[in-house]
Write a structure and sequence with these properties.
The chain is an all-beta fold. It contains no helices and 6 strands. It has one domain. Helix content is 0%, strand content 55%. The strands form 2 sheets. Strands 5-3-2-6 form a 4-stranded antiparallel beta sheet, with no helix packed on it. A two-stranded antiparallel sheet has the order 1-4.
């Protein structure tokens, strides 16, 4: 969740990119070494109602490889190099 200001009274979209260190945890609890993934997410603002300021939510997911199968759990260890672009 975030907040942007200075938008006027228009709708907008927000694109967020970041790097993340991720790993997968297998059903036995074993964790292989982590790797770096690029995360991309998009959020959409609602109509601006508060003097050009609007809160937003971003849904993001890694863009690279997945865990070996659906029994493994993806674990995000660290997120960094976060960049956001607002388009109105």
């Amino acid at each position: 969740m975030g907040k942007v200001v200075g938008l006027g009274n228009r709708l907008g979209t927000i694109e967020v990119t970041a790097d993340a260190d991720v790993t997968c945890i297998n059903p036995g609890g074993q964790t292989p070494p982590p790797w770096t993934e690029r995360i991309v997410g998009y959020g959409f603002t609602e109509p601006i109602t508060r003097n050009g300021a609007q809160r937003f939510d971003v849904i993001a997911s890694p863009t690279g490889r997945d865990c070996p199968n659906a029994n493994w759990t993806l674990d995000v260890l660290r997120i960094y190099n976060i960049q956001a672009t607002v388009t109105r």
